[in-house]
Amino acid sequence: MDIDLADLDFWRKPLKERNEAFARLRQLEHPVFFPEKKVPFLRSGKGFYALVRHADVVEASRNPKIFSSEPAVTNPEPPGWIKQVFGESMVNMDDPRHARLRRIVTRSFSPKMLAGLQSDIEAACKRIVDDVIEEGPRDFVSQVAARLPIHVICDMLDIPQELRERVHKHVDISTAYTGVRPSLARSVQMAGQNMMALLALQRMVIKLGHERAANPKGDLVSLLVTANVDGEKLTDKELGSFFSLLLVAGNETTRNAMAHGIRLLTENPAQRELLLSDFDAHINNTIEEIVRYVSPIMQFRRTVTQDYSLRGLELKKGDKVVLFYGSANRDESVFPDPDKFDITRDTKPHVGFGGPGPHFCLGANLARQELRTMFRELFTRLPGIRTVGEPELLLSNFDNSVRSQRFTF
Fold first, then answer.
1. Phi first, then psi: what are they for 284, rounded to 5°?
2. CA-to-CA dists, residue 88 to 37, 91, 198, 243, angstroms
3. Please, where are the H alpha helices in 146-304?
4. Which of 63, 110, 167, 406 is most buried, judged by most C-beta within 10 A?
5. How many CB atoms are located within 10 Å of the residue 121 CB?
6. What's the pTM value of the predicted model, to 2 decimals?
7. Of 100, 402, 115, which Cα lies nearest the Cα of 242?
8. Dihedral sign (CA 186, 187, 192, 198)
9. Which residues pair with 167 in a beta bridge?
10. What confidence tier does 306 reach under pLDDT thresholds 50, 70, 90?
11. Is beta strand 320-324 parallel, antiparallel or unpaired with respect to 47-51?
């Protein structure tokens, strides 16, 4: 076929062309194998089978013993020494290690904890819109979408104000690194920048962790360093790894959905009018439709642990598969007319927060809460808000990120 999901040129194509390519792949009898080029200094594999149908993504997600998250879910896989320096991220673990960490940190995202954050989220949204009104509309990403999730996470962790700009900078460097590589020289440069950014973030939270262990407050860091679940606590490396994951994953999903969402509501005025006709009745499903349509994180990789038959394809132990969430979310057999943005559709099966199973996004409800609160603030105080022109997108096969988007109100 003239489709190569492992090639940078494919991800340069317009979204319409990529969606058409995935639609063709979904019609094939078996998942297609895509070989990968070797990238110096990185653990690029021989290639992967692309899981593009909704049913295949769900099947792999529900069977973590066969479709393993170890050694890594990102592409390309990081070198082994990275884990020695930074510790392992929870997304790159299987049970029982994954379950142990998730038991410790899941209390931080309980309904009670999230309810306690609501007033802080509302205050942050108000300040952001205040600043937009004072500064005037320029770039929706830098003025709105990028600010809220970082602000909320820093509030949750009680990061000192003087450190927050540094946190934001380090997160941007980290997310720019994940995904396709533009060239060898640039890849090496980005790898170095990413390593230094992650190291700085981890040192910061480990230092805070030691301070909060001695003098606990009511923040997330204090909760994590004093948590004792079945006699277990987070180590320094585990705290640092979770902090990095929270900042990158917690930031990108909300930021991407918000930036794409305001554009979708601009380009679909009937859907916008329906939402504003009864905000409370439609906002929750609007958020789910945005996440389905956008798929903020486009794919994760899994490693096959034993021979397995998937839709007639005989996978062998050690094979790699990639779960393409964006394609699964446009599977015609699950979502009729999938390229239509429709806030009234049944979005329950979407995999925009990951497939069902132990790795379903821990912060999904926090992301929903942030999006719901910010859209309410924007459409209440700036009812004429709309995007202008096309967005500038990050070139990546992993992160469906908007780098900038002009807007007006």
1. -65, -45
2. 26, 8, 12, 12
3. 147-157, 161-177, 184-214, 220-226, 236-267, 269-277, 279-294
4. 167
5. 21
6. 0.89
7. 100
8. positive
9. none
10. very high
11. parallel
